[in-house]
Amino acid sequence: MPIQTDPLTSEPYIRLPPPLSHIIVTPPRLTDPQTSSIISPASPSLASTDSRDHLTVPAADIAARTAALNDVAVYDWLESPPYPYSAADAASFVRGGFEDCRRIFTTLHSQPDGTNVRAWADGCPFRDIRDTSALAPTSKDGESDVAQAPLVGDVMLSRYTYYEIQPAESNERRVARERNAALEAGGEEVVWGIGFWLSSTHHKKGIMAIVVQTVLSEWAIPRMNLRVLMGSAFVGNAGSVAVMRKCGFKELQTIEKGSVLLAESRGGGKRDIVVLRWERPGISS
Ligand SMILES: CC(C)(COP(=O)(O)OP(=O)(O)OC[C@H]1O[C@@H](n2cnc3c(N)ncnc32)[C@H](O)[C@@H]1OP(=O)(O)O)[C@@H](O)C(=O)NCCC(=O)NCCS
Hints:
The protein has 285 residues and is an alpha+beta fold. The chain has one domain (4-279): 3-Layer(aba) Sandwich (Aminopeptidase). It contains 7 helices and 11 strands. Strand 8, helix 6 and strand 9 (228-234) form a beta-alpha-beta unit. Helix 1 (59-69) crosses helix 3 (87-109). It is globular. The chain binds coenzyme A. Residues 74, 77-78, 196-198, 203-209, 233, 237-240, 242-243, 246 line the site of coenzyme A (COA).
């Protein structure tokens, strides 16, 4: 399904195809506390110089993110979020994501119309997975189902960090990471990595595999020129590996103690990880 825009809030979103059309993926949101309206990083009126300090992270999004990332069925399989995960962690993550997405949309808006100049997006702004069949606790009359849809997960594309180059602290890995991060958006050599989670209420309903496929077909391929996507999971994360396999990823290798050093609150030490690779059909590298 193409990218749609909520007529009530002007927020762009992607809706999954049936039978999962109650699931949408939006950019991170802020709200204007004076009007309670959703502010999207896609809004062309958001100038880079505007202060956004007065905007707030929606309370329902903070609550949903905090609950999920303190749920052992979710956090135990993730490498980077802090644990315990606080409301402040959630707010700062959403604000950071909002600014990142605003930069992505601004680059696209600033291209001249009607020319052959094409700005590739340097990332995917569709990250917040929401369920329009469930009402947010804070929902109000007159709001659209898109605006009211509670957050149920996250999907994130970022420049790949080369797990297969070990050890993690090695110079070789740092150089590879920095080189990949410095490549121009849309470049054929850019290697992307994917991360995702869903609230445990939404596990095993076939959602994540379709989210990944939809984000790839609706944004990452046509707007980012994404060609190679890497995924990694702790060994034993059957759900994550199954999702990636279903999307066409192939297992590359298993790396003993290949994760970053985990915080003591998450058991400490390093865990074994499996690395998978997806390549866009029709390209050969
Ligand atoms: C991993 C995760 C995103 C999977 O999402 P999901 O929507 O539940 O997965 P899907 O329902 O799309 O499943 C796709 C396939 O994986 C299989 N699968 C899903 N969870 C599974 C599990 N725990 N064990 C075995 N297979 C599983 C499904 O059966 C399905 O296969 P099928 O289509 O042949 O039936 C979700 O379990 C989650 O958020 N886990 C915690 C966080 C996490 O692990 N993130 C990834 C870090 S690398």
